[in-house]
Every structure is written in structure tokens, then in C-alpha cells.
Write a structure and sequence with these properties.
The complex is a heterodimer of chains A (174) and B (95). Chain A has 174 residues and is of the alpha/beta class. Chain A has 9 helices and 6 strands; from the N terminus they run H-H-E-H-E-H-H-E-H-H-E-H-H-E-E. A 6-stranded mixed beta sheet of chain A has the order 4-3-2-1-5-6. Chain B is an alpha+beta fold. Classes of the chains: A alpha/beta (174), B alpha+beta (95). Chains A and B meet through helix 6 and helix 8 of A and strand 1, helix 2 and strand 5 of B.
């Protein structure tokens, strides 16, 4: 999402129109992220690319924490990237994790699985986070066990839930 | 070990892949100190047991989690059980 006004227009009655359980937003514009963090219609702020991760700040984390918005990072780059690309991702993720935990925000790590084989055991993922991103064991458990439960309880009473993703070009169901 | 199609590999070769992954993640100094070896591995079920020092358990699990391909075949490792006493492993119910 490139500008704040554009996002406001897309958000009008979006949940009813799209029939999804969660609304997730992606943007590399700090102003848009700031607006999304305080808008109760947004459930998740997803940060995946370097510009998106760099646009995240303490102010956004603080607002998201107050409004109960989840901050989501992808887990896949930890095993799909190698060398300096992985180091960069670890550094940016570590920064976001520290900021979010400092502001007592709610962090999620999406499995980002494209295939069945990409799905990893939550316990194993918690260990990876503990070792590679210096998250304490308690924080890692919250990220992989407690927060996904909170999100599921908050968004849907059914067994199956759908998420609508708003990004710079498209609105789609995932 | 889950894989898209059967991985034809013996315990020694598998151990080398795990070692390489561990080395790339934690570097030569840590991998020099970490001792682990595969005590049994069934090539049909692709299940086995790795023996390691308690202090490197988490690092080994992390290396296994991030190991995603062997001989260009996509794989995923699932840690079923861990135990401080290897003889008790079949009896252990949870991680």
C-alpha cells in the first residue's frame, strides 16, 4: 500500500465485502504502517521485504501493542536464504523482535509454507528463534504457541479461517 | 526425515549433510567442539537416532530444522523425542 488515503478507501467495509476472518497488511511506507497499527480493522502487519522491515519503528510497535495488532515476520528466509542474505534477515528480524518485545507487542512468525514439506514443527522453530534471533525461551514459546492461539480466538470461531492480504498492488484471499 | 521422494543415503552421508549445515550456521569453532553421531538410521523409514552432548542439543535441532534439501531432494526433519539417557529413548513420551 503506497499511501494512507488509498488504504482508507480499501479498508471501508473490507471485512464484510471480502468475507475474510483476518485482515493483514503489507507496506514499506511508515505512514501507512502507523495508520494500520492504530486501526482496529487491521489484525496483522506483515513485514517480509527489507524495505518493509526497515519501515517498522518503535512508534508503530507501541501503537500495535496498544491496539492488539499482531506483527508478523516470515520464517522461511531463515532456511531459504544463505550467507549475507540470511545475516541481513536475522539482523532486521532481531531488531523488530527487540522493539516489539520492548513495547510488549504481539509477534508472530508465519511458516510461510509454499509446500507441505516447508511446514516445520513449532517446538523446533522456537529453538531456532531462541538461538538465531536471541529470543528468550519464554518469548519464543509465546510467538509460536500463545500468539497464534490468541489470533485464532480473536478472528474466528470456526475451524477454518481465511486471511485477506492488502499490499501495494492487490487485495487477495490467502 | 520427510522427503518429496525417497532419499537414497546411508547414516554416514546423512551425518555429513547435517555436519555441513551445522558448520554453515554456527561456524567452524562451534562445530569443532560439537560431537554428534547417528547411532541408528533406517533407510526405509528414514528415521533414526542422533547422539549428541546435551549442550549442543538445541544447536543440532536448529541445524536439522534449517536443513531443507539433500541431493536436490526437498527434505524436512521432525524431532520426535529427546532424552538425556539414550536407552530410555523408546520409553520417552514427550519432548
Amino acid at each position: 500500500m503506497q499511501d494512507r488515503q488509498g488504504m482508507k478507501e480499501r479498508l471501508a467495509n473490507i471485512r464484510e465485502k471480502s468475507g475474510v476472518n483476518f485482515i493483514c497488511i503489507r507496506s514499506s511506507n511508515p505512514e501507512v504502517l502507523n495508520f494500520a497499527a492504530k486501526d482496529s480493522r487491521i489484525d496483522i502487519i506483515h513485514l517480509e521485504t527489507q524495505p518493509e522491515m526497515q519501515a517498522f519503528s518503535e512508534g508503530i510497535a507501541s501503537l500495535a501493542s496498544q491496539k492488539g495488532t499482531f506483527i508478523e515476520l516470515p520464517f522461511a528466509p531463515l532456511y531459504t536464504t544463505r550467507g549475507s542474505a540470511r545475516s541481513k534477515f536475522i539482523r532486521e528480524s532481531n531488531k523488530i523482535l527487540e522493539i516489539t518485545m520492548h513495547k510488549q507487542g504481539r509477534l508472530l512468525f508465519s511458516s510461510d509454507a509454499r509446500r507441505l514439506i516447508d511446514i516445520k514443527n513449532a517446538w523446533q522453530r522456537a529453538i531456532v528463534l531462541n538461538l538465531l534471533l536471541d529470543a528468550s525461551r519464554q518469548v519464543a514459546r509465546e510467538i509460536f504457541f500463545k500468539n497464534p492461539m490468541l489470533l485464532a480466538e480473536h478472528g474466528s470461531k470456526e475451524d477454518v479461517a481465511t486471511a485477506g492480504i492488502i499490499d501495494e498492488t492487490i487485495v487477495e484471499d490467502d | 526425515m520427510f522427503s518429496e521422494r525417497p532419499v537414497v543415503i546411508d547414516a554416514k552421508q546423512l551425518s555429513q549433510f547435517i555436519w555441513r549445515q551445522y558448520n554453515s550456521l554456527f561456524g567452524e569453532i562451534k562445530s569443532g567442539k560439537a560431537g554428534f553421531w547417528i547411532t541408528d538410521y533406517d533407510e526405509t523409514t528414514q528415521a533414526g537416532t542422533i547422539r549428541c552432548a546435551g549442550i549442543v542439543l538445541d544447536e543440532l535441532v536448529a541445524a536439522l530444522t534449517l536443513l531443507t534439501s539433500i541431493n536436490d531432494i526437498l527434505v524436512a526433519f521432525d524431532t520426535i523425542k529427546t532424552s538425556g539417557v539414550i536407552d530410555k529413548l523408546p520409553e520417552t513420551d514427550s519432548m
